[in-house]
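Hey, resending since the last one bounced:
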Amino acid sequence: MLRQRIRRALGVAAVGLLPLAAPLVLQGSASAHGYTQNPPSRSSHCAQGNVSDCGGIQWEPQSVEGPKGFPSAGPADGTLCAGGNSRFAQLDDPTKPWPLTPMNSGQNFTFTWKLTAAHATTSFRYFVTKNGWNPNQPLTRSQLELTPFLTVNMGGQRPPFTVSHSGRLPSGKSGRHLIFAVWDIADTGNAFYSCADVNFR
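The structure tokens again:
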């Protein structure tokens, strides 16, 4: 009888702990994200303290996640840098003093992502703004060349926590531009988005 009472009490206690355990499980799965470090993305600059008044992205630069399918679907125009996530709207603000990473048009460059967990991946894609784009407005599809200048297909493989891609930068670019990077996830309906401000020489 005593053993039955102990078992019953333990069962009730375990059931009572389930509501507490569930958020922990969800938080663990939500930490599987990433962002570009080279060139430094806007979220990276916020996390490093290079740009102030960034809001919550400074604590979780890896969390710029939104619906995939860009450019035919995905985040709405004007919210691309934040992945359509209103919590990170500061990333879409063109008036912030975003540092510019110098680049040489037409030369090879190695892009680097930092991942907090590795999703099964369809591809990494890199887009650039058109010549004559307006850097004083939030990024829209009409300001981007919608054919990526670099695509790395993964076929559902999981990348390492630090993943690099080498490729040739677009030619015929000069001055300030944005590089818009998209990490397409294979086994969810989402992608991760990253904007990096650069200066082509």
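Helices lie at 2-29, 42-48.

Sorry for the duplicate.
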